Amino acid sequence: FPEINNKTEITKTSPKRSYDKEQPISRHAKETIIQQKPYKCEICLKQFTTAGHVKIHLRIHAGEKPYKCEICLGQFSQKSYVKKHKKVHTGEKDYKCNICCKTYTSADNLKKHLRAHTGEKPFECDICSKPFIAACDLKRHLRTHTGEKPYKCDLCPVQFSQQSHLIRHKKGHSGEKNHKCEIC
Prior knowledge:
The chain is of the alpha+beta class. Helices cover about 40% and strands about 15% of the residues. The protein has six helices and twelve strands. The chain has helices at about 25-35, 50-60, 80-90, 105-120, 135-145, 165-175, and strands spanning about 10, 15-20, 40, 45-50, 65-70, 75, 95, 105, 125, 130, 150, 160. The strands form six sheets. Strands 1-2 form a two-stranded antiparallel sheet. A two-stranded antiparallel sheet has the order 3-4. A two-stranded antiparallel sheet has the order 5-6. The longest helix is centred in the N-terminal third of the chain and has 12 residues, at about 50-60. The termini are far apart.
């Protein structure tokens, strides 16, 4: 929640409403803000606004990826992820850092980048206390502790903890070189 005082404006999709001591803000918060995400994933406890969103989210845990990028054949659990991913191919970067002018494909990526300027690392490993800029970086790091290797090669039995390692490995199957010699 944002900091809540005795007279705070809270914006929902409807017009702003102000509250004062006659109607405590905490009651409003309990009745509307908290209940905006009443549905919860029983696996990771992430909360959602609708049961349908939970159902879509569960594809992540099940490893279901029914949506494909027709350019690189990458597979995704949600249609919106494909749309976001396609910006990698088009080079479309609508979000610009006002500090260093780097551009990004999404507001989330820009937000993560801004943490590099501020030094903020809000995600900390419960096991070794190492801090991270983004939740996805923490999730990837946790695999070093758990030994989880969710990325499987479909051509051999090898598994990897990081997707980038699987991609590099698959290039070996196709004969594609991972590094090009600057001299040759």
